[in-house]
Structures are given as C-alpha cells and as structure tokens.
Amino acid sequence: MTGDVKQLLQTSSLESNVRGLFLISCLLMTTTPVFAQAVDANGANALAATLSEYVGKKAIEKNIFAVVPDGDSYRITFSTAKLFESLPKQDYFKGDFGQYSLLARPLADGSWTISATAVPGGSVEVTAPTGPEAIEWSVDNGKMNGTFDPKIGTFSEASFSYGSMKMQSTGPTQDVEVSAGSAKGAMQGAAAASGGVDFSSNQSAVDFLETMTLKSPPAADDAAAAPQSPMKIVLSSRQIDVNAEGKGFRNLEFLDLWKFLIAHAQETTLNDQQQADLKTKLLAALPFWDKLSGAYQFSDLKVETPLGPFTAGNVSQEMDLDGVSKSGGYHYTLRTRGLKYPELPIPEWSVQFLPADMEIGFGMEGIDLDTLVRAAVADMDLKREKPFSDEFEAKTAAAFLASPPKVVIDKSFVKMADSEISVEGEVSFAAMKPASQTTWEMSNFDALVNRLTKASEQEPEIKNYIVFAKLAKDFGTQLPNGHIQWIVDQKADGSVSVNGNPVKGPDPMVEPGSDGTLEGDPTQDNNVLVPDDEEDSPGTSPAQ
Q1: Which band of pLDDT confidence, cut at 50, 70 and 90, is reported for residue 93?
Q2: 510 is a domain residue
Q3: Distance between CA 147 and CA 106 in Å, rounded?
C-alpha cells in the first residue's frame, strides 16, 4: 500500500478505538452461537481473537482491548492508558480518555445483550505551532442498553441516556465551554428487503449552552502590543434533537472491508491477488446505502453577540443522500422559524425586510456515481505511484464535462414582516453552458412597493429601485390567491424570457479564433430590455 493509504488506515483505526463502546458492539456481528454455549475463558479467548481481526492483534496482545468472563457475560474493556503506552514517545500530544467497558451477554439465538453503565470523561492536550491547546469533558450517569443481532450486523434495538455533559477547551485564539442537561436516545434496525439494513435513530438533549470566547493575540511583528479585548458569543437552546435514518445500509460489507484493511495495514504493497480481493470487497459494498438522511434541530435558540441577542423559535438542517447509483440525488435544507433581531445599525425602513422565517433547499440530481466508482475500482493499482491512471482521470473529467449533474433549487422561501417570496427550479448544463428554469412567487407585492415609496422620502436614491419593482410587477402573472408569479426561463444560448415574454436575446456568436470583443459599446446591448422609467415613474431617473 502507499504511505498515504497506510497512514489513513492507522489514523482511522485510532479514531475508531476512541469510539470504543459502539465499535466493540459492532464487532460482535462476526461471532457465532458457540459463544452462547458457555461463558468461560475459552469463550473469552475466542471473542478476543475475533476482536483482533478488527482492531489488530497488537491491540489484544498489549491489553488495549481485553475480554474476560464476568458472570453470565463477557466484559470487553478498551484502555486508553494502554493505547498511549503503545504509541511512540512524542511531545506533541498527551491525553487520558479513561477506560471504556461494556458487558456482552450471549443469547441462545446468537444475538447479544449489550450494556454499559458509564461513559468516562477525559482530557487531551496538544502542543500546536500557535500554542498549547487542551480539551476536557465529563459525562454524568451515562447508560446504554441494547440487543445486537449478528445476522444484520447492528442493534435490532438500543437506547442510551446520560444525566449531564460538560466540555471545556482552551487555545491561543478561542476558548469554548459547552454543557447540556439530560439526554436520551434510541435506535432500531432490521434487515432490508433490498439488502443491507434499514435503521432509524433519534437523540435529544435539553438545556444546551455553549460559550465561545474569541481572543485576538498580538500581531507576530509586534509581540509587545497588548491583545484586544476578547469577544464573547453565547449560544443556548432549550432542546437539541438529532435524527438519522438509513435504507439498505451495507454495514456488513463495510465491516468486511474494514477487516481486510486492518489485516493488511502494515503492508507496504498489495500483490495482485490481494488487490483483486480488495476490489471485490469494494464492489460488494455498493451502493453503500439506498437512502441516507439526517437532521438536527435547535429549539428556542438564542445567540448572544456584541450586537445583542438573536433568537429563533427553531433552526434545523437536513440532508438526504442517495447511495452510489446511476442517477443519484443529494439534497440539503436549512430552516429557521421565528427569527428576531437586536437593534441593528441599519436604516429603520430596512428592518421590515429582515427575514422572520426562512427555508433554503438545494441539491444535485442525475449524478452517475455508479459508473465512476466501478471505473475507479477497475483502474486502481496501489503498486503504482499514482493509484489512478492519467487516462482514467482524463476520461472522468471528459465525462463530467459532457454530462454534468443538474442543480436543483428545492422549494425555498423568505418570509418578511408582511410579504413572502419563494423560488424553486433547476439548472442544467449543456457543453458547460447553463440553462435554467425557475419559478418565483411573491405575496403582498404592493406592500413592498409602498414600503420602498415611503422610505424614498428620506432616501431619494431608493426611487431607482421602485422603477424596477414596478417593471417586475408588469412582467408577473397575477395568481388567484393574489400572489404574483414569474417563470424565468434561461436558455443555453443566453436568451432569457419571463412568463414567455423575451427580455434578452441570445448571446452574440463569437467566431473561433477571435478575441471575443464585440462591436459597439458593450453596455448598449440591444438584446437586453431596458425599463421605460418615464412611463413607470415620472420625474425619476434610472440608476446610472
């Protein structure tokens, strides 16, 4: 393997070790009902041997992971102290993550009951080039219980809770304090008809509080200068909710792939048969999942800033991701409700334009990752200096230019004090030239014009915007609900129409080899419709 791949595996392995409780549970998927026959030293050794396939033999030999009988269960322990003892001596990093432990009780049907009664606290210190950085945390009264089903490689059901959580970090430019009250969560998993696992999980925590202190150290060329006063931002939320759902998640295939990578992590290269095995396992994991979605939400959010408090009834983000497919879609949505602002240094008339509610959604569709990934696996050769050939990279770039994905604007809107504007549509590309169709809709349009008209009494330059607002209304279509709608159609040739009415002609053709300049003044494009300000706004002049 290349050095970069080897380093990635080692880094990923360490990260997974830190997540000990969940990882150890997942590894039980490879065990067989033989462990359910008796809980004894032989069973513990067999379970440790299985565990070594996923964490490495040295982790077992050096007691970083240990398995011992404990009543009718096996106690599996991950020791961060043993982990640090096994690492090369260095001055950059030191820490203490405590000792993670759980009980795994085998059942007659081959499943396991998993339980843990504590989530240890810990601390980390890093000597960075900019100065020392440290983080410490504690979790009070943490508990986890669940039933692990080896046939699906995950929990058929599980729950967790803790009483409170605290975290504090310090650094040269920023200090952070985080706390939360009680939290709870649950998950369910079941075999998917299409292969893989369907799962869902939810978590919530109350009384979330985060204080960020932003520090400005003196400039490097003036070390004697006193630093500026720190700026403090405090974020609080009555409750945080996190949800995730997966359809057809190929976790068994991922764990099988992980086992292969661990088995070969110390090798500098892979022979032909090993590479063939790796490619087979990569392809077996496709499409990784059928559907994957996740969301989090802050309820009663408040952000204290030097300008004053910003508040919202709730703020949420959502992501929806297809797996690797011939025509995948990937979408993101940001939602806010009940936004309120402090007194801001903006003109009074503009306050009514600040959003009260907002939803922004966009994504990409028609992405053929299946062809790309399969071609990449076929071309990959870890014995080369570059795992992927120049020919593959060139073909991939050419394929993207020939058939780029479509950008989608999901239904989005901004709601102001007395009006709302929404948009949805899509943007496609032909020979890298964009073509789009978007539908815009606005309620209470006249209120916006009246507000601008009143504001223009104090700021005359606003009259220039009123001209364009009236022109926009003329191009719009009045809907039965009183809203005004604009369907904007932009062709790949550069032409634009609004509700079927041309407003811009095609871009001028440029002969190959020319310098791309056009005759005449480029600002006087006869293809662009300019508003007749004299008709719409007597006595005013358009913006220059």
Answers
A1: confident
A2: no
A3: 10
Q: What is the full DSSP assignment across 204-224?
A: EEEEEEEEEEEEEPPPTT-TT
* Domain end position, chosen among 108, 137, 172: 172
Compute the C-alpha angle 167/307/337, nearest 5°.
Answer: 75
Burial class (CB in 10 A: 0-12, 13-18, 19+), 216: exposed
In the predicted structure, residue 435 carries a pLDDT above the cut 90: yes
Instruction: Tell me which residue range forms the domain holding 478.
Output: 420-504
Six-digit token string for 318: 């959502």
Last residue of a domain, one of 113, 143, 172: 172
Asked if 362 and 332 count as a contact pair (C-beta separation under 8 A), the reply is: yes
The structural domain count of the chain equals 2
**Residue 476 counted as domain residue:** yes
DSSP conformation class of 195 = S
10 Å CB burial of residue 180 (0-12, 13-18, 19+) is buried
This prediction's pTM: 0.81
Q: pLDDT of 196-214, one tens digit each?
A: 999 999 999 999 999 999 9
Give the confidence band of 511 by pLDDT, cuts at 50, 70, 90.
low
User: What are the helix (H) ranges across 207-336?
Assistant: 251-263, 272-284
Q: Which residues touch 103 (CB under 8 Å, ≥6 apart)?
A: 70, 73, 74, 75, 76, 114, 115, 116
Q: Is residue 379 in some structural domain?
A: no
Residue 256 lies in a domain: no
Confidence of residue 463 (pLDDT cuts 50, 70, 90): confident
